[in-house]
Amino acid sequence: MVRSSKRVANRGHKKKKAEGDSSSSSAAEKAAPKIQDAQLAQIAKFGLPSGLSSLADADDFTARWLECLAEGRQWGGASYGGRGVQVHNSGDVIIDNVTLCYVGKTGSTYLLENAKVQFLKGHCYGLIGVNGAGKTTLLRRLASFTLPGTPLHLKYAYVAQELTPPPEEEALTTLDYTVAADVERALLMKEDADLNEKLTSGADMTDEEVERVTEVVEQLDAIGADQAEDRARAVLKGLGFPERLIDAPVKHLSGG
């Protein structure tokens, strides 16, 4: 009788667990498109280096990392990076066990293997390595949140090393390009402009679009969109840019 009772209890436990898993999957499915859209928008902005589409993570964290992104949960704790992972919202970027490799026809080429990535708040860093060592790949993966363990509460802005502005953008300054690297702000500003154009033109708008007008304004306020230039100027000064280069056309800068 005792064994029978235990079996029933276990079945009940499994049923509850299955229901919980189903609920988690449902939440993940709802959140995944928004996460994916944000990632694709950033990747579209940054561009992909040759071969990045075949870049694979040779570690065991990737599946759990994507699950965290989809569910909007913190990275850290049992099964989610380990209990040793910091989950408090500090201004530091500290990621352990980072492994990146290219998987090609001739095998795998490791860019990083069980490395520790550490950027401390308030410090400036220079990445040193031969061509193809993975410097740009690492930065792009951080900026697009596709590196398992990347702190999700921080914002990342990536400005490409080689810039060839189209004719209509040749007058843009170094400051302009740095501000544009804030992809979230750029997307919200464009959405705000599109919605306001509809409002002023008298075009028909759905209830969702009308609600979105207020939401976009609130989101822009929340990220301090009006202070974007001040923040970008402070970053450039911190990197050693003199005022004359900050306000000069970016085409005057060397590719390095």
UniProtKB/TrEMBL annotation:
Annotated ranges, domain ABC transporter: 112-256
Stretches the record annotates as Disordered: 1-33
Presence of the UniProt keyword Repeat in the record: yes
Biased composition (Basic residues): 1-17
Gene3D superfamilies for this protein: P-loop containing nucleotide triphosphate hydrolases (3.40.50.300)
Compositionally biased tracts (Low complexity): 21-30
Molecular function terms, GO-annotated: ATP binding; ATP hydrolysis activity
Keywords for this protein: Repeat
Transmembrane portions of the chain: none
Pfam families: ABC_tran (PF00005)
The protein's name: ABC transporter domain-containing protein
Protein source organism: Perkinsus olseni
